[in-house]
Structure formats: structure tokens, C-alpha cells
Automatic annotation (TrEMBL):
GO BP term (any one): cellular respiration
Classification of source organism: Eukaryota, Fungi, Dikarya, Ascomycota, Pezizomycotina
Gene Ontology CC: mitochondrion
Assembly: Interacts with coenzyme Q.
Pfam families reported in the protein's UniProt record: Polyketide_cyc (PF03364)
Source species: Orbilia blumenaviensis
Top-level division of the source organism's lineage: Eukaryota
Name of the molecule in the record: Coenzyme Q-binding protein COQ10 START domain-containing protein
Gene3D superfamilies found in the cross-reference section: 3.30.530.20
Ranges of residues in domain Coenzyme Q-binding protein COQ10 START: 48-194
SUPFAM superfamilies attached to this UniProt entry: Bet v1-like
Family under the similarity heading: Belongs to the COQ10 family.
Function recorded in the entry: Required for the function of coenzyme Q in the respiratory chain. May serve as a chaperone or may be involved in the transport of Q6 from its site of synthesis to the catalytic sites of the respiratory complexes.
Amino acid sequence: MIVRPPPSLSLRLVSSASHSRAFKPASQTRHFILPTSRQRFTATRTLAHPPSKLFTLISDINSYSSFVPFCLSSTVTSVSPPPESYPTTADLRVGWGGFDETFTSRVKCEKFTGKEGGLVEADATQNGIFEVLKATWVINNHDNKGSSSETRRDGDGESKVDLEIEYKFANPLYAVMSEAVMPTVAGKIIEAFEGRVEKVLGKK
């Protein structure tokens, strides 16, 4: 003997199953892409002072704590032989918010041969927070009048100053947490340097 359910019960069962399928929550997967490559940010200014004077200011790393944003202290720990006595290593203490860390940098100061200008590079790559941390200043003559260094008087001329910040965090999560701050650092530093130039060399 075959027992069949009442038509009303069959309808309720089908309706219940359809309702269950219609409202079954869909599974969702979220993907987070963490930065893993080196990041570079640059800033450029044209300043109404000769490259030699700007090179002297930029290579004066002991003064960085007086104008560089987030730099709490700056100390040159070794210099090259005289007569140049350029800094070769330096400790820079950096802090903002709850972050406070001292970075030891290998410093290279180099005047360009045969033309005005130079390069100042601070490499603090060897630390536990960054796999790469490097700041490079390049100063070049930018004289619109086209006069040579021999015919220009001391204090004349313009300079083109380029700053590049290159970094890569050891932990990609740090990159996520600081992504709103790091892209603005180069611009803030070179803007602060403009203020330093005006204070030391005067406004033109």
C-alpha cells in the first residue's frame, strides 16, 4: 500500500524548501592587497640661491632636527677626512603619534665634478622597521640667464633641488597603517627646507 501525504502538506514542504533556498546567505570572501614593493615619492623646488650654498645647508645633518618634520634629534657620528669633513654616518630620531625610533644612516655627500651642484644621500636601510629607507637630495644649477659659474658673483644664480624618498616596510601592515602619511613626507620636508633656506640665506 502506498501512503501519499495530503496535498496541503506537500505544498507546505515544497514552499518551505523553496523559501530556504531563496534566503540562503551567500558566502563572501574579502581580499586585502598589501604593498610589497618599494615606494618612491619625489618633490622639486627651484630656489633663488646658488647650488654651493644649498649643498652646504643640506649636508648640515646636525641641523635637521631644527626644521625637518618628524625629526626629533639629528647627530652626525662620523665624518670624512679633512678638508671636506662631510658626514658619513648619522643618527636621526624620528617620531609622530606613538611612533619613536632612531635610525642610523650611512651618508654620502658628493659635489659634482666640473659643474655646480651635488648630491646628499642618507641610507638607513639596516633597521627592523624598513627593508629600504633612503633619502636622496640632488642640487643642480638652474640659471635662466645662462651665465657661467666664473661670471656669477657669490650669491647669484638659481638652483633646482630634487628630493626622493624611497622606502619599503619590513611588515606590509605598517605600509597599510601609514599609507595616508608617507606620500606627503617628501613634500613636507622640501617645504620645510624652503623655510630653512629663507631663514639662513634670506628671501630673494
